[in-house]
Amino acid sequence: MVRSLLSGILLLLILQSRVSGQVESYTVSLAPFSSDMYDEYSPVYYKNGIVFCSNWDPNLLLKYLLSTNRGPFNIFFIDTTGDVKWQNANLFSKNLNTKFNDGPVTFNPIGDEIYYSRNQEVKGKLSKLSGTRNKLGIFHAVLGEKDWEKTREFRFNNKWYNFTTPWFSPDENRLYFSSDKFGGYGGADLYYCQWKVSYWDSPVNLGPLINTEENESYPFITATGSLFFSSDGHSGMGGKDIFFSKFIDSAWINPVALDAPINSESDDFGLIADTDMKEGYFSSNRDETIDIYHFKTTFRQLFFCERQRENQYCFIFRDKGQIDIDTTKFQYVWDFGNGNRIDGKDVHYCFPGPGKYYVKLNIEDSATGGIFFTKLSYYIDLRDIEQPYITSSYPAIAGDSVRFDGLLTNLPGFEIAECYWIFGDGEKAKGEVVKHLYKEEGIYEVKLGIFSTPDSNSIIREECISKNISVYYDPGEIESFRTDKVEPDQITGIEEYDHAITKTLYSFENEVTSYIVYQVELFTSETKVDLNSEIFRNIPEQYTVKEVMHPHNNLYSYIVSEEINLMYTYPAYSEMYTRGFRDVTVRTFLFTDPAHKELYNLKKTYCLSSDLFFRKNDYRLSLGGYPLLLQIIGLMNKYPTIMLEVAVHTDNIGTSNRNLALTRKRTEVMVNYLIEKGIDSNRLVARGYGESRPIAPNFREEQRILNRRIDFNIIEE
Asked: Which helix (H) or strand (E) holds 149?
């Protein structure tokens, strides 16, 4: 194979850049099994040694010499537990060996499957098949008793394109590789295929954040999902450099070049490492030949650091719905469950810190301060952000020592083993708590990388955070320094904050279109209260106390009024409050049985003004009342077991005795009409309330007309 093909696969175009002023993160030395006479590259861990590619030919008499005196590459194995020198390397497999280019390779975790690259055409004379048209492909084999066998071609191999540098993911679900096939971003791109029960699915390009117009190859995927690869299209030190990336939040992060001396101005590629990146191998042509180098990590490189987020405890609380209230009588009050209350529909509140809170939006009676109605209530579990935390004095003075602390890191289940600090001025340090002195003023990006103890699978977790710190010469500048505060228009609602769990306990808006009524509730009790108890002695006779059992909380509720409009309950609420029931409030009740729901619809559909049913100051029915009464007859015939209260109310025009007598006479007329139409009298109760139960003030006619009304209510037995 001509040298141009080898260079097209191994060594791609060189880019020039510089790296300076960096403390070395790695130490590098030539691997003992790498020679200075031949090319070796792309090492892979296998059992107790290393599998790699080399153009060394132990049988020099039969060696086919290229014009460069460098022959095709074969796959070799070296036992790294013994005498490790390149002369002791052996051909890895006779069955996999061809007279063309073999390798690189990758194995499944237990080592009985291999995917490897080689020239697609291997039958025929070497001199005739050594052109650039003999593309590289990927092949698969399984380990037999003596050697590798059952070689199969990767189903996407194509004689027009190269498929090479395969890497089997640790979970065996993906096969990564490089290809210059049509449809990429230029040159050779990185792809993966997903395993689908019994076959590899179509190749997926890793996308433009990984692939460039140049060449990407030699993917290496760690057990934690990190991707190392080689590229001459990303900005690096020159030539082909090794880069890191990781798939986070449904996207690859921008690749980061490995520090020198792993990367150099020459071509660097084919990196592998142990599970925690403590040491490993890579390939480079930084000397006269391509060699394999061993590296050790002396200071962990922090490849990707999130910006440290500040915990948010301040939020805007908004009333998103609408209830028409009389602002002269009522006010909105947010109750944050810890003794703090703020008036208003939309408020700004800061919690003291993380914790569990019960928040309510109440409509309060301005005159008494009592809770008239709770419009919204929810439970909040406010949590600190799970991340490493950089704690330091901020800002700082140049020449003074600054203490940096990583002990407030909040990562449940993360046992810190190591902490690495990068101070943004070229200096680094290790330790959970460190001190650093800045010589110059400026804004420095401080990075903290933390690494966990190994888990049961020997996996080490790593997290990194960064934070800016301002350094000044003049201490007086600190006095005028303003920290970046969250302005009110930047503060979010609690529902939008990703570290607060909110659970709505009650929302008026969720029920406003349902079959709900508003009940004036005196109190609740865990045990039944006798309705003849002295507790109720101050209840006016026009009110009847009703007991309701709520199965969802096993509480008994004692009700004195029920309306289909919230504001209509205020007169009853106010009277109960003045009579000593300080816990009185209005709550919603949802009808679920069909009879109540149908009556509810009738009351919503038909006008309930007594002006429509009766002539002024008269008890005789007018034509306007009959349609609803006919519907009531139909309802009672449909539900033959229900009992019905027929009620009539007036405004306060005239004497109270006259108004009471008028309403009683009107109810008798309606009840008699229903009886005449076949409704059993035992199922009907006539109640005339006169002016005793208003639902609105009686100051103006538009208010009084609301009080002149009829009503129908199902009586609970």
From this structure: strand 148-153
pLDDT digits (tens, 9 = 90+) for 531-589: 999 999 999 999 999 998 888 788 999 999 999 889 999 999 999 999 999 999 999 98
Residue pair 492/312 in contact (Cβ under 8 Å)? The answer is: yes
Per-residue pLDDT tens digits for 661-676: 999 999 999 999 999 9
Q: Encode 487-500 in three state secondary structure.
A: CHHHCCEHHHCCCE
Residues 6+ apart with CB under 8 A from 247: 225, 227, 253
Tokens of 61: 């008499």
In this structure, are strands 216-221 and 391-392 parallel, antiparallel, or unpaired? Answer: unpaired
Sign of CA dihedral 704, 705, 706, 708: positive
Q: How confident is the model at residue 486 (pLDDT cuts 50, 70, 90)?
A: very low
CA 504 – CA 488 distance, rounded (Å): 24
Distances (CA, A) of 475 to 439, 445, 468, 478, 567: 14, 21, 19, 5, 61
Phi, psi torsion values for 627, nearest 5 degrees: -55, -45
Indicate if the pLDDT at residue 17 is higher than 60.
no
Stretch 20-25: mean pLDDT:
58
**What is the pTM for the complete model shown?**
0.72
* CA proximity to 221, closest of 162, 165, 286, 261: 165
Query: What crossing angle do the helices spanning 626-638 and 656-676 adopt, rounded to 10°?
Result: 60
- Cβ atoms within 10 A of the Cβ of 572, count? 24
- Going by C-beta distance under 8 Å and a sequence separation of 6 or more, which residues neighbour residue 128? none
- pLDDT computed for residue 187 by the predictor: 94
pLDDT tens, position by position, 120-175: 988 766 655 555 578 999 999 999 999 999 999 999 999 999 999 999 999 999 99
The Cα–Cα gap between 74 and 199 comes to 28
Assess contact for 689 and 666: CB atoms under 8 A: no
Helix axes 626-638, 594-605, angle to 10 degrees: 170
- Residue pointed to by tokens 């279109």: 513
Write the DSSP string, 167-194. Answer: EE-TTSSEEEEEE--TTSSSSSEEEEEE
Domains for the chain: give ranges and CATH numbers: 3-298 (2.120.10.30), 395-479 (2.60.40.10), 514-590 (3.30.70.1070), 593-717 (3.30.1330.60)
